[in-house]
Amino acid sequence: MASKTSSSLGAILLAQRAEIVAAWQANTAALLARHAASPQIAGLLRAEAAEFLSELCRYVGDEEAGAGETSRSFARLTALAAGASAAHAREGLTPSETSSFVLSFRDALTPFVVEAFAADGRRLTAELARIGAIVDRLAIDAAEAHGATRETMIERQSRAIVDLSTPVLQVWPQILLMPLVGVVDTRRAQQVMEDLLNAIARDRALVVILDVTGVPVIDTRVALHLTKTVSAANMLGAQVILTGISPDAAQTLVKLDVDLKAIRTRGTLHFGLVEALRMLGQKVGDHAVRSGGT
To answer: In Å, how far are 25, 32, 121, 236 from 108, measured between CA atoms?
Structure first.
């Protein structure tokens, strides 16, 4: 290729977009190979690369014309970087893979810049520095978008897990069951209370079985959350039966002098259900239900 020091970098890069895309694919062969088993991801990366390079070349030209970061091409370019990074996060690509995707454009562009301005060392240095600054800025934008998307996904997954781990089930007319699984922190305790109270009001429940068999640690903080939930349920006219406290948890609560006298307890979910039926005066077969053990 002949030296084109009189031409603008943007024009030179636009004229060689196909060659630059090919160079990018060669430089990112390892990245593409890691996702060869997923044609959708590999195709997504190639499509993004072509669009990204085209917009990058346009922005370089606009910057040379004095528009710089106020240009529409810059807005489109940063939006592409952020959008591509967010898509990578949703598709399961790692932060390092996303960074490699963006930074690889500098490696793909460098040979073309060097060949175009080899006869002018000062301009070559300036153009390489400009390309590097643009790509570095986009890499930062991409990293921020990837991190923000991952945080959003984790937050949504956490909410989904909490929702799945705190279902409110109607096991009998006017009897609800809420089995708790996992750690009960302040935020989750608030959701447990809201969900339970809404269910009590909706189903006109008179008895609620709160099963904590799946809660690994029951300490003073958890006990406080449980007592608040019981008090709130009582205000709506529902009685709460707490089931599933382990022997270790019972010893811990006794040592901590936690007062659970206001809470009706049963050792297992089975006996909790028996107690709930007894409280409502229900009958099973021909015999009235009697309270079964602790």
So the answer is: 9, 15, 20, 67
Distance CA 134, CA 204 (A): 62
Q: What is the pLDDT of residues 206-252, one digit of tens each?
A: 999 999 998 888 888 888 888 899 999 999 999 999 999 988 888 87
Tokens 């936690």 found at: 258
Best CA proximity match to 141, nearest among 103, 113, 93: 103
Distances (CA, A) of 148 to 80, 116, 156, 205, 241: 15, 38, 12, 41, 42
The rounded distance, in Å, linking the Cα atoms of 77 and 260 is 61
Mean pLDDT, the chain, rounded, equals: 82
Residue type, 223: A
- The phi, psi pair for 7, rounded to 5°, reads -90, 160
Whether the model pTM is above 0.85: no
- Give the integer Cα–Cα distance in Å for 188 and 208: 18
